[in-house]
Amino acid sequence: MAGVCSRRNADDLIKEGLVKVNGEVVTDFGVRVSSTDEVVVNGRRISPARYQYILVNKPRDTITTTDDDRNRTTVLDLVRISDDQKRGLFPVGRLDRHTTGVLLLTNDGELAHRLMHPRHEIEKLYVVDVDRPVDAADVRRLADGVELEDGPAKADYADFPDPLRPDRVGLSIHEGRNRQIRRMMETLGYRVKKLERVRYAGLSTKGLRRGKWRRLKNHEVEALYRKVKLKTK
After folding, report:
1. Claim to verify: residue 127 and residue 181 sit in the same structural domain
2. Could you tell me the sign of the dihedral formed by the alpha carbons of 66, 68, 69, 71, in that order?
3. Which tens digits make up the pLDDT trace of 18-45?
4. How many structural domains comprise the chain?
5. SS3 62
6. Does 102 have pLDDT greater than 70?
7. Do residues 85 and 135 share a domain?
8. DSSP string over 82-102
9. Nearest-CA neighbor of 192 among 175, 169, 211?
10. Percent of the chain at pLDDT above 70?
11. d(C-alpha 84, C-alpha 61), whole Å
12. Is 232's pLDDT higher than 80?
């Protein structure tokens, strides 16, 4: 919560003797601290940041990561807050570079973990434009399941959202495999021209222009907690 590192890296810092609580080096992972304790990591005093929940309407050519060694634009670059406030924020799941739409950023690790876990079957709704009209039989195949190189994949829902656009399909999935929607369409012989995630866990970008962001409202955060059976903090 202080934005220092991941939980796994925290274990390494503790093993290396770089963590002090009230002036004493601790190497026991089970040590509990309160809000009045002083915690120092590698010589720097830290304190937990408040939880943040930020919705981004991701544009194309933006990397879904916190930093990039090739100096490309990341989703964190879109959020105009201080570096201190950004510390600890990370994207919940991934959208590939050219996919647009709903993306959640947070520093609430427990909520993020549950949202990404397949057990909770969090809905992801996409609209995909392809290079030619989609056959109705292929839409049914998307719902019945197609075979990918890493196993079968199927949409929870597949249909034409616009009767005047036979080259556009709406797909809902709860899995999170790499480039899953694109690969499903390619398996059926279609080339994806545009892919947008229009809804994630009940969140949408309605009223939020591409490349812009906003903080979630309290009722939206509470709804996310209910979806993954967590008590609000």
Report:
1. yes
2. negative
3. 999 999 999 998 888 887 899 999 999 9
4. 3
5. coil
6. yes
7. no
8. -HHHHTT-EESS---TT-EEE
9. 169
10. 98
11. 25
12. no
- The whole-number pLDDT of residue 22 equals 95
What is the average pLDDT across 92-106?
95
Q: Is the dihedral of CA 136, 142, 146, 149 positive or negative?
A: positive
21 within domain boundaries = yes
The residues assigned a catalytic role are 96
Q: Which of 47, 49, 22 is nearest to 35 (CA)?
A: 47
Q: Which pairs count as long-range contacts for 186-194, CB under 8 Å and 24+ apart, including other chains?
A: 187/146, 187/147, 187/148, 188/138, 188/141, 188/142, 188/146, 190/130, 190/131, 190/132, 190/134, 190/138, 191/130, 191/131, 192/128, 192/129, 192/130, 192/131, 193/129, 193/130, 193/131, 194/100, 194/128, 194/129
Query: What value does the mean pLDDT take over residues 49-71?
Result: 93
Q: Is residue 2 part of a domain?
A: no
Of 133 and 87, which is predicted with more confidence?
133
**Domain coverage including residue 143:** 123-200
Separation of CA 37 from chain center = 32
User: Tokens standing for 94?
Assistant: 């991934």
Residue 10 pLDDT greater than 70, yes or no: yes
* Statement to judge: residues 111 and 219 lie in one domain: yes
Q: Is 232 part of a structural domain of the chain?
A: no
Pairwise CA distance, residues 198 & 172, whole Å: 10
Confirm if 205 and 198 have CB atoms less than 8 A apart: yes
Closest C-alpha to 126, from 148, 153, 102, 142: 102
Sorting pLDDT into bands at 50, 70 and 90, what band is 3? low
